[in-house]
Amino acid sequence: MRAILVVNPQATSTTAGGRDVLAHALASQVKLDVVETDYRGHAMAVARSAARDGIDLVVAHGGDGTVNEVVNGLLADAVTPGAPPQAGGSTTRTPGRGGGDPSEIGHVPALGVVPGGSANVFARALGISADSFEATHQLLNALENDRSRRVGLGLADGHWFTFNSGLGWDADVVGRVAKRRGKQTTAGLYLRAAVRSYFRPPLGRPALTIRIPGEEPAEALTAFVSNTDPWSYLGERAIHLNPGCSFETGLGLFALNGLGLPTVFKHVRQALTTKSNQRGRRLVRHDDLPMIRIDAAEPVNFQVDGDLVGQRTRVEFVSVPNALTVIV
Q1: Which of 10, 31, 5 is nearest to 20 (CA)?
Q2: Residues 179, 185, 190, 191, Cα dihedral to 10°
Q3: What is the per-residue pLDDT across 16-59, written as a single tens digit (0 to 9) for each?
Q4: Is there a contact between 252 and 291 (Cβ–Cβ < 8 Å)?
Q5: What are residue 34's phi and psi, to 5 degrees?
Q6: Which residue, 80, 79, 75, is CA-closest to 48?
Q7: pTM of the model
Q8: Where does the chain have alpha helices with state H?
Q9: Contact at 8 Å (CB) between 240 and 274?
Q10: Strand, helix or coil at 192?
């Protein structure tokens, strides 16, 4: 088996020693090349090249951003060219970066993950240990026993995401945290960013219109889209928005059409303390959706897997079942 280990040396908990232990352990089972990333987008370029070269396995050692880049690189050319099919009237499937129908994915290398970031949401959702040495042992054991899992992914405006995406408040928070890169991305940093973004939204609170095939349009001020549960973590505490969401289901939607303090406190408390389905007068929530389209009255921030992509006035989110093989 030919494999590439992609290491982000700037990730929160990656170390040279941990990288060497991981590389040595993997090299005992596969023919291995090791690449350390030097710039944003480097991991994506390496993974895309690996897919083109017929590499069997790409292992991402870093945080969720590194994993996301690797996933987008692996799938960059994987979509069969052709006209995207229609779904739900004027709403269409968003084609992948390779063009065509994202449900028609060709062969791509398998993915391995050894966490090295601060949140590691995707890895933790798959049951991979947050400890890099234990995660390395899990990966080696899975390789030895030929154990893998097919997972569904989300596709939003041409960007693949593994665990969540969103427009509005959460993307504002991500943008604020990104400006503090170089600092430890602690739960406290995210909390401060959330409070500041709540009281001083950088782009205001433009109205969002949510369109789901077969449903009447709904209005909101912020929208969270999940590909699995939990939606994310605050330190060690899981944040549950759509508890029924998983890598085997469609997308989960959690949107609020009001952001008064009582509403926000109610849903934040429920998200942090229970896995039961939330209800509320200001809540728009759906599970297992094949597609969601969100239009904004003015440009709003847009994030995927905890990285700010930019600003958008329209995003289509598509669930793509069995998109990727993960060694786990």
Answers
A1: 5
A2: -130
A3: 888 999 999 999 999 999 999 999 999 999 999 999 999 999 99
A4: no
A5: -115, 130
A6: 75
A7: 0.91
A8: 16-27, 42-52, 64-74, 121-125, 132-144, 169-178, 187-199, 261-273
A9: yes
A10: helix
How far is residue 226's CA from residue 102's CA, in Å, rounded to a whole number?
Answer: 18
> Helices H, strands E: what count in the chain?
8, 16
Q: What are the phi and psi torsion angles at 204 (to 5°)?
A: 75, -160
Q: Encode pLDDT of 4-25 as tens digits.
A: 999 999 888 888 888 999 999 9
Amino acid at 54: G
**Residue 54 contacts by C-beta under 8 Å, 6 or more apart in sequence?**
2
CA angle in degrees (0–180, nearest 5) for 246-252-257: 155
Burial of 193 (0-12, 13-18, 19+ CB in 10 A): buried
Residue appearing with tokens 């590499």: 55
- Per DSSP, what are the bridge partners of residue 284? 255
The burial class, CB within 10 Å (0-12 / 13-18 / 19+), for 51 is: buried
Return d(Cα 155, Cα 60) in angstroms, integer.
20
Radius of gyration of the chain (CA): 19
Q: Retrieve residue 253's tokens.
A: 């939607």
Measured CA to CA, the distance from residue 160 to residue 72 in angstroms comes to: 6
pLDDT at 230 over 70: yes
Residue that is written with structure tokens 């090299």 in the block: 27
Task: For tokens 């693949």, name the residue.
Answer: 160
The residue assigned the tokens 């982000």 is 8
Can you state the angle between helices 16-27 and 132-144, rounded to 10 degrees? 10
One-letter amino acid of 206: P
